[in-house]
């Protein structure tokens, strides 16, 4: 249940509604022929599924390999963020070409992801923030885009430098990405399912929920909440030179932390990051609908019907949420007729 409500929403944002993934799929379909582009788009989720399966099996194999000789408890590594390269160098170093492939894949994937994020940030900020207020020629626009990309890369670099001082990378990624995944997944579903939602309502709802979840992530990180229960650790299969007293010290420290009463912790901080992602998506949908109806979203319902999924349109018709029964084809026809009338009137006034 926790995985369905938490992890699936985060992965939905990453694999379905992310700006990086969407732009890649749109570009892929733009240069391929019709049916081949569709086949490639349908094959994409299969490769994503294979990637997740390999990741799951890799995690299970690492847990099994170090089941009775924890490397952090032994002192071989300082953080669990280092366990994958440590496993590669310690246990798989004798496999031919594997270390080179591992390093090449790590550098290639990180470079591709960072470049996509930097370019997307620069393009979105320029189009949505700069363009509506400042008119620039092509030469100046290129300079501004490069400066925005440089600023985005600088912020990402400073964040990467600060990660070791803030905790483990996995914990920070899970906390902040889960905080952002819920609102943006809710925004994606709002645009797909609700024709009465407008930009003001959806934007304000997403911003409010993002601020709320960011406050939750920061507050939970600085609170005295007990650590999440983990698998039992031992040094039974470690070499003889390992100091068994490390296990006793670790067990005593964990027991001392778990004895801290959670009654002094704000109740909302006790909500897991997995559940907070689901709560964020639900709040975004509810607030976005309410704020849109308050700001006149019902006036643009007929115009937005052609942009809504037919599946959700049939659901709203069944529950009589739409006053006028129409299909997507009817909405398109009405829009085209209205456009034709406007063009005819312009031509008539021009020649009169």
UniProtKB/TrEMBL annotation:
It is found in: Cell membrane. Keywords: Cell membrane, Ion transport, Membrane, Sodium, Sodium transport, Transmembrane, Transmembrane helix, Transport. It is a multi-pass membrane protein. GO terms for molecular function: symporter activity. InterPro entries: Na/Glc_symporter_sf (IPR038377), Na/solute_symporter (IPR001734), Sodium:Solute_Symporter_SSF (IPR051163). It comes from the Eukaryota. GO terms for cellular component: plasma membrane. The chain crosses the membrane at residues 42-66, 101-127, 147-166, 172-192, 199-218, 273-294. Its main location: membrane. Coiled coil: none annotated. GO terms for biological process: sodium ion transport. Belongs to the sodium:solute symporter (SSF) (TC 2.A.21) family. PANTHER family: LD47995P-RELATED (PTHR42985:SF40), SODIUM-COUPLED MONOCARBOXYLATE TRANSPORTER (PTHR42985). This is Sodium dependent multivitamin transporter.
């Amino acid at each position: 249940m926790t995985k369905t409500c938490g992890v699936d929403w985060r992965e939905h944002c990453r694999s379905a509604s992310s700006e990086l993934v969407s732009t890649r799929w749109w570009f892929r379909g733009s240069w391929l022929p019709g049916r081949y582009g569709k086949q490639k788009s349908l094959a994409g989720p299969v490769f994503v599924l294979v990637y997740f399966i390999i990741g799951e099996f890799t995690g299970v194999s690492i847990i099994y390999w170090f089941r009775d000789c924890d490397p952090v408890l032994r002192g071989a590594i300082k953080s669990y963020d280092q366990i994958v390269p440590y496993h590669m160098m310690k246990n798989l170093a004798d496999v031919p070409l594997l270390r080179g492939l591992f390093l090449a894949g790590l550098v290639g994937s990180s470079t591709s992801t960072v470049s996509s994020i930097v370019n997307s940030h620069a393009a979105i900020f320029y189009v949505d923030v700069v363009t509506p207020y400042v008119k620039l020629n092509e030469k100046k626009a290129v300079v501004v885009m490069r400066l925005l990309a440089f600023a985005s890369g600088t912020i990402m670099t400073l964040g990467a430098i600060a990660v070791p001082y803030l905790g483990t990378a996995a914990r920070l990624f899970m906390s902040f990405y889960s905080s952002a995944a819920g609102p943006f997944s809710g925004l994606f579903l709002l645009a797909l399912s609700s024709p009465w939602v407008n930009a003001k309502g959806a934007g304000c709802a997403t911003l409010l929920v993002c601020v709320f979840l960011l406050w939750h992530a920061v507050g939970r990180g600085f609170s005295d909440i007990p650590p999440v229960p983990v698998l039992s650790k031992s040094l039974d299969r470690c070499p003889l030179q390992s100091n068994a007293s490390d296990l006793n010290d670790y067990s005593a420290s964990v027991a001392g932390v778990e004895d801290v009463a959670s009654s002094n912790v704000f109740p909302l901080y006790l909500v897991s990051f997995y559940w907070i992602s689901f709560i964020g998506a639900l709040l975004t949908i509810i607030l976005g609908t309410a704020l849109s109806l308050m700001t006149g979203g019902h006036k643009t319902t007929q115009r937005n019907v052609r942009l809504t999924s037919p599946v959700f349109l049939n659901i709203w018709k069944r529950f009589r949420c739409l006053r006028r029964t129409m299909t997507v084809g009817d909405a398109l026809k009405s829009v085209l007729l209205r456009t034709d009338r406007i063009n005819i009137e312009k031509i008539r006034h021009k020649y009169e």
